[in-house]
Amino acid sequence: MQKKVLITGASGFVAEHLIPQFRKKGWFIYGTDRQDSPSVKCDVFKSIDLNDLKGADLEGESFDLVIHLAAARADWGVTDEEYFRDNVDASRALIEALKEIEVKKVIFVSSISVMPQDTNECLEEDAPYAPINAYGFSKRDAEYLFLDYHKEFKFDLSIIRPTVLYGPSNPEKTGIYRAVDNNIFRLIDGIYSKRFAILGDGKTIKTTAYVKNFTDAIIFSAENTKGYELYVYADYPPTFMVDLVKLIRSNLGKTGTGPRLPFKMIMNFSIIFDLFSKYTKINLPINQSRIKTFVRPTNFRPGNYIKKGFKQKYTTDKAIEETVEWYLDLKQKYDHNFFLFKEK
Fold first, then answer.
1. Residues 288-323: tens digit of each pLDDT
2. How far apart are the first and last CA of the chain?
3. Where do the domains of the chain lie, and which CATH numbers do they carry?
């Protein structure tokens, strides 16, 4: 009998790469999203805001697997209320609807933002909760909801906390703004356009997650988790920011590390950019949130994936090579200045 998977956030970046992998394995894909169409073909697609989801919307369905990807996530332009509405309230509505049907396994994609930040210590799944912003707190609260749901209904549950996701995307499916609105893309664009400088000595530890590795990790979790399991996902090993910059520059045909600037000076200057963005509604690549992200250590190790034998297919070198190649193709196709763009 054909297995069936429900994927929320089916119009998004991760779903764009994940759905084809499930399709190759012969799964029936049931997708939902508040957008009008999925990023790739689903067998069934329902355009619905999860906050409006009711048990009747899934009546008569049963799922071998549910993957909850839908979430609010951004460095700019999302209010605290929106984070809690789209990450907590929407998760609660989804869970209440799922309680009315048969579900065998659930994967909730959370975030490393629920864990301690701004530390060089290598963190794994045993790290405590320590979010520092509304996004992190909303993801933590959503984890609580899924843990309570699991205790009551005893299905298999995986919670996965990825670090910074990046990689190619088809903007005709996900939209140009979603395709380019991540920090690795903006780092590549800044280096290409000579608008980026390393802040400080560049020795900040940075873990990243190539989207193709991450979707492999999701499928690994679906196939190897019994009961409850918590996973951190980051490509391993981590790199220093300066080495990541050198790698991107090399793939762009540049040498060295490029210019460097004092952190405090740029942080003070970023206040002007924040004010400009506030009044023009233009999402600039330079703001206090992004600068803090670039200089904040993110040292995460996928301990449980390593213990269970998961092997990432793409090294960071290969992942950056593919992403830079995609960026250059996108630049040529759209002839777009990615430095300035307005949100939809």
1. 666 666 677 889 999 999 999 999 999 999 999 999
2. 42
3. 4-166+208-233 (3.40.50.720), 175-206+239-298+316-334 (no CATH)
